[in-house]
Design goal:
The chain is built from twelve helices and 19 strands. The protein has helices at about 30-35, 50, 70-80, 100-115, 150-155, 190-210, 215-220, 235-240, 380-390, 415-425, 435-440, 445-449, and strands at about 40-45, 55-60, 90-95, 115-120, 120-125, 140-145, 145-150, 160-165, 170, 230, 285-290, 290-305, 305-315, 325-330, 345-350, 355-365, 370-380, 395-400, 405-410. Helix 4 (about 100-115) runs parallel beside helix 6 (about 190-210).
Amino acid sequence: MRRSLATLRILTGALLMVPVLVGSALVQARGDDRALPMHFELRVEGPAASCGETCRTLIGATGAITAESPRDFLKFMQVNTARGQRLDDATVVFDSDGGSVLGAIALGREIRKAGLSTAVGRVVDLAETRAKVPGDRPRAKISPIADCESMCAFVVLGGIKRTVPAEARVMVHQIWLGDRREDPTAATYSAEDLVLVQRDIGSLARFTEEMGASIDLLDLALRIPPWEPLHVMSRAEIVRTRLSTEDAAPASAPVASAPPTSVRPQRLPLTEGAAATPISERSWALLSRDEGAALARRHPLTVEGDGIGSFDLMLSCGADGKFDMSYVERRSGSDAVTVPKRLDNVRLRVGRASAVLKVVSSERKDAMSELRSLAIGAVPDELVRGFAEGRRSLVVETTSDGMVTVIRIGNTGAAQNFPRLASACAKPAAGGRADASLMQKTGGMALAK
């Protein structure tokens, strides 16, 4: 494995919201349907005129994978078999955000035990839903416009035959402890957590090999930390990992895995003279310095798990009672990622609110040193309040020489400390000067330096 301790577990109870539905009406691609525990629906492929005697039996599997999903799948199979339905040649079609690691492994094994095929897609009812077919089963077609995220990719491995249409998206990443996913760098982890992590990694590795897939699929998932977006698998990766059996690489000519990359540890301070400051990766903290007050947070900078540097974010007093954000980055790259010539853009997002910071400096002292960059800008009140009040995470996007980084930061400590910053920014300075004067002391440039 390229990563020493990638956490691959969701707490069993984290997704137990309501019982899995069996026999309910199939919902057509609704977002709320995917958020519910996984339910299963029986259909026959159509239209009848297009496939005739070769129409497949389809089992739509939509929603989050929970610890109960294997049991509900078995119940679904038993009920329909008792009704005289033939299911031994069925295709299970997945549209899911993923879910429980252990639930996914057990569900995949039940699918393999039943000798079924799997596919990524959405089962969409046709107008002829009550056509005269054996068992009076509704007709449907498979739409390839679907997402199979996180543990869903591993459940698909349970199929004897596995189909991933070109239009479908399969996305993978590390699956964190469910109650600490929103701000993983701020959370604490016990020895028991690490024992569970290693046990589940082993279980998932064993399952992947049992299903005849490449361990490269697990390796790919382990590269993506929870603060980065899910990795959308390319067609080459789908083939190389044998996620799809229709276009799998010949066994006689295996595709070699990429050599492991070694990542240089990033222990440098992020700002000049910042070694003794309380800026931390664990929480947003209120800094009180000669330049003024700021709410600050430090975070590693990664690209698909490769550590390429780190950055500080500092929210400080702005003009007219508003706020400024400073982004201070040191980027040294890795064996797999080169250092760009300069940082081009920095953009912040909280929900629908966004702000673009102006890159005011970005340079290297020489070819061997890290790239040091500073970007500053005013941030809208909607963005600041939405984040500080704990409703949403802060997403930081950068672009440089065509390379993009996307980091999601939680708000641990922000709700407690933001009111103090707001109070400091609103307080008149000595001599009766208002906060516009304070801005000159607390601006992003002064804090960064």
